[in-house]
What does this fold into?
Amino acid sequence: MDQQSLNVLEYNKIIEQLKGSCVTEGGREEAAALKPHESLVAVNHALNLTHEAMGMILRNGRPPFAPVKDVRDYLKRSAIGSMLSMGELLVIASLLRIIRDLKNFYEADTQMESLILLGDSFAAMDDCAELEKEISRKILGPEEMADTASRELSRIRREMQFKNNRINDKLNSMVNSSSYDKVLQEKIITIRNNRYVVPVKQEYRNQVPGIVLDKSASGATLFIEPLAVVELNNDIKILVAEEEQEMIRILKELTARVADYRQVIAPDYELLIELDFIFGKAKLALATGGEKVTVQEKGAISFLRAKHPLIPGDQVVASDIIFEPGIDTMVITGPNTGGKTVTLKTVGLLTLMIQAGLFVPVREGSQTRLFKNVFADIGDEQSIEQSLSTFSSHMTNIVKILNEADENALVLFDELGAGTDPTEGAALAISILDGLHKRGVTSLSTTHYSELKEFALVTPGIVNASVEFDVKTLRPTYRLLIGVPGKSNAFSIAARLGLSDQIIDNAKELIQSEAIRFEETLIKIDEKRRKTEAEHDAVIRLKQEADALNKKMKEDYDQALLEQKALIEKAQLEAMEIVKKTREETEEIYREIRSIQEATANSVKDNKQLEAIRKRIKEKEKNIYEFGGDPRDLMQDHFEFTDLVVGMKVFVNSLRREGEIVKLLPNDQKVMVQVEVMKLKLDVADLSPSRAVGKTQEKQVTYKKTDRHVMETKLDLRGKNGEEALLLVEKMLDDAVLSGSKQLMIVHGKGTGRLRQIIHEYLKDSKQIEDFRLGAMNEGGSGVTVVNL
It folds into this structure.
């Protein structure tokens, strides 16, 4: 890239912002060396890295970078056997700690699989955890080593502490003794030449035997090391030397460990500064509102809502800078301070940033092509650098550009042809633009020459553009209007500022009639443009309203679907709750039946016949479990409505009575059942198959009903087994409840008394029984039981 153009477009200021987004010194160095790439692969690779880093920041926050010095020199010195200091070793540990934090940052990302490029860098890092822990454990600060760095060092320091305590005890006893009150200058203990001393008055020096190590400036005070602590001070001096030797040994040992890991630490550092640089680009993108721009090998520039990245966000005006297909040259006209030069610099600087892998402040969907070089001839009183150029210096630069520019170059001219005779300058400008256009060079130029406007109007591949100016307020709007040449507005501005009409009319007469007609044409074009824009804005508003209405309808429809789904789910939950409750009630009934069975079975456990019954029930339950059934199937089966027909015998569960279906009620899903003398309207769920099938026939029972209100109250069970007897007693009790009988007589005979015992055990647990007794002599004695209901 042309270095002069980089300077003119203020690329260096973007680099300074990028350096400020980096944390490490190495990252800032990489940022300072960043230049726009000239290959499409390199550009897209750099943009994709920035995109992945930006995604990680948005998902997980900023990465845990921290300032760290360049460790490459430390690694070289460790490799040749030079000892690293405690501070340098701490730098190595700090680097490894940052590497560990970065790996944790990466592994915590919920979208690790999307990091196609950055994932390799994170995966390649090794935090050398053991080395980092060892250094951190042994080195506490740049000048401080832990007592626990080695056993020997711990021993030496314990001895030093012991010796120091003994010296302090001896010297404290001396200075606190009343016998030394007039001898000592002050009752203090101090240090001279790393040895403990006491301040003694000159005239009493002989009263304190010891070694004079120093004296005051006046000579009135001598600092004497008492003989009592000389030996202890000597011991401490020896221990200090031993401590230093042990610390040197530990530092050399740690340095050797660093040397062993240098092939891992060196790549770690390179990866760290590379990642710091990449994430610095992502942080700059977030700070400037940057977006990723699509870059192609060929094509046209299309920057949507583009902003100059160096102008504050509250001052910059966004513009659409679009080269339609087939257009490679744009001529921008308009008043001074209207934003022409800013537009040139925006296009140039955004192009450089994109090719450097940086995101730029444009709207999503923007795209551009790859340029191998960017040339800029910009310099007037409106330039950011405030550099003034003469026609000669301009032309020198233009000649250089014309010699080097080709179809892969972007050329930016500010006030092309200015600084000389307008006629000749306009002719030169047209010739330069025509030459570049014929060579396929992409260029943008600003001008005040009407001739260039006309040239752009009649030349295919060249388009006019202008920066809008509000004549009423005498201020530019900074909007770029593509396809519309700018008019001078000189007469309008002069009139608004108070110049007399006579002078303005005279000036108009001096202009050639063709120029006046051209200006009038531009005025008409501008009026039509404004009208078209107003109509376009109205259409946009209508479309937005229609889109909003459509969105509202869709939201209402989606809400209705959600409510419908919620209602269905609620109904399903309620149905499930009903089923659950019904099952629980059924299970409770089943448990009661089982408890009755168990109570009955317990009461007759010695009866072989009932034991056989229990065995058969258990085998039946086991079979049902094995086939995925429910043991409650032993108790009753339920009908479906379609299974029922008129005349079918059924068992009414709620009444525990047999009945016959006399009528089907399909609308209510109910049936009319004749139960003895009653007709009942019942739910299908209250019916189960008739129990009369396979049972002992009722003709075997000796009691019978005489009419609808009177029943035989005597039951003869002689000759029945225990199971048959209990079934008949149960049925007799039910009939007695329905008929209203109050007393029953059960004939069971005397025999062994076993049948009587079974019946009495059953009657004890029956809630229908008030009491029962054996019969009187005239009633049958112990062969009969009288039951009161």
Q: What stands out?
A: The two ends are 115 Å apart (CA to CA). The first helix runs from residue 3 to 8. The CA atoms of residues 715 and 729 lie 8 Å apart. The mean pLDDT is 83.
